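Supplementary Text 2. Reproducibility record for the structural model of the 360-residue chain.

All settings were left at their defaults, and a single model was retained for analysis rather than an ensemble. We include the record here because the model underlies the residue-level annotations in Supplementary Table 4.
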Amino acid sequence: MSTLFSPLQAGALTLPNRILMAPLTRCRTEPGHVPGALMAEHYTQRAAAGLIIAEATMITEGASAFRFEPGLYSDAQVAGWRKVTDAVHAAGGRIVVQLWHGGRACHPLLNGGREAVSASALAITNDVVHTPEGKQPYTVPRALRDDELPGIVQAYARAATNARKAGFDGVEVHGANGYLIDQFLRDGANRRSGPYGGSRENRARLLFQVLDAVCGEWDAGRVGLRLSPLNSYNDMKDSDPVGLVRYVATRLNDYPLAYMHLMRGDFAGQQQGDMLTPAREHYNGVLVGNMGYNGDEAATAIAAGQLDAVAFGTGFLANPDLPERIRVGAPLNRPDPATFYSPGAAGYTDYPALTEAAMA
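Retained model, structure tokens:
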């Protein structure tokens, strides 16, 4: 386990260990998509992570896909996040925020009637969205015009600026899981022509324009990127995920980023393949793996040079002291899916730490 607990220099971020907290949407904001005291407590409990990657956070109004997810476009949201980051820093932690636009995963009932937008007018067909009026099918999004995309890019830049005001140590650009940037990247959702469609280079154009804009607001060494080339979540697929990883990984070498955060698999198991090997072969920077790792596998992968760090999702969800549990080989709390997105402290801040569990 020593490899997991060795420090890591990820761009401008100095991490005390290689056990990262993956971004986990938990829908616990106060009205106005504002982080509150409950969120501050949740993240502070997990400050022992080498790095906390805070949950998907809206870059602009009208981009809600979950109803109670946070934003970074209003002064109240910035102030709310500042309370979170101050608390995490006081506990000795490091925290970045994931910048996000839901694209076609948004719904008019969540966004004051605003229609969803995407790369192409293709709806998510294999799931439903939870709205104030109950479960609803996803709507057919409006394909964004080319002349609208600079405004999207600027929204990412403004959110990056707000992240600095909110006290974050950096930002992660969300290019995964079937949200807006991913909808442009993968050809299963991008059927457009013109400069943002067709070839892999064109489909990646929006991603790299966003990275240019965000790195213009932050030192690139404080910027990360998350990708999920295999994940079929949100009705996603690409005809050549390995080729996509090779291309993006190679292009990322032009950006001295903090890290590339790669989801190695598919939640639904529909698509298979090795994404980590081509990523490691073509990307020269810090590579973070994610999806289904336990402590032993993470340590083995890092020791073998396959990865530099691992981001844990449900492990951190249910175990605020996950690094210590891994270090001493203690059993893990089981996550309760019934409380993943429910309001309140239950299943959010009430998972016991080791000392609390021993006293129970």
